[in-house]
Amino acid sequence: MRPRIAIIGGGIAGLAFAIYYKKLGGRVDIYERSPLSGREGLGFIMLENGVKAMAQLGLDKQAAEVGYPVELCHIVDDNNNLLIEETLEGSYGVTRKAFLDVLLNEIPSEWLHFDHQFSHFEWHQDGCAKLACFTNGEKVEADYFLGCDGGRSAVRAQIFPEAKRSDIKVKELVSIVKSPELVQQLENKFVKYKHLDGGLAVGMVPADEQSVVWFVQYDCERFDILDDSETGKQHFAERLVSQWPDPINALIKLTDFSQSHIWNTCYLIPLERFHKHNVVLLGDAAHALLPFTSQGVNSAIEDAIELAKIFESSVEGFDVTALEHFSVMRKSVVANYLTQGLALQQEFLAPHHHEQKIPFAF
User: How many domains does the chain contain in total?
Assistant: First the structure.
């Protein structure tokens, strides 16, 4: 008999696990805090490893169809001089909502439980979690609990209360605009304008045929927003980058800053392991990365697939040894992403030099 699995968090990591586990013949229950599956965030880039992971879910074509191909990374300075250009293999931009909808279409409705804000676990005497308790008063029993509730994971706080996040050195003002003209103007490129003195950049990526996700990335010790109201965000963007080359000023004018958000970027100080007894962390809950890697979503889907495979291969006599294997395997992968992310962050903060890399981890 397969173990009962409760997934806490209905974002990309939890949904990806459910889909792959369903392909293997299993079922799960997903508990999401929001009325709809969590849709925070505006969009992201799917890189080659994430695209391959989506193929394992059988959803590579469906996801690519709701996104927009991104074939080049194009880095220029704030005077529009080309600094770096590299090919991106098999990548695309996509809105978070569209991507989540592709995943949700594969999940049976009876597996989904919304309006469930996780509170705490009740524990067996042997140290394993017995019940997941939610703020609505519901208690859920399972053999295994998967913490897929993001970078500020409440599940992680329960099992690893000593876990810490890094200091914040870089922030991003992230927005989305509707403009088919700008999508066409980008010509299947991720474009990033950067100040040659370092610490300030504007990035933009087409997310579908109508939408461009864009961000102002800044050293928060040198530049920081004091007013995070709609007007304050707009004035902040105008002050920093409105004089930069087209289409940046057009982006500012098209943006509804009431829908923009400030991302305090940081990473999770590496955990010793991604599980404690029968509670396992996936995605940002296990290893939140710096945004320079663009590996948050991609690595989360890989996490989900690898853990589902371990459950499948260990149906008989499944024990903590298999979870140790999962931790060791995935920690080695994300350690590489973290190392690259730290190097890319340092390059962003420092003046430009000719050996700088494109802002992705591979």
Answer: 1
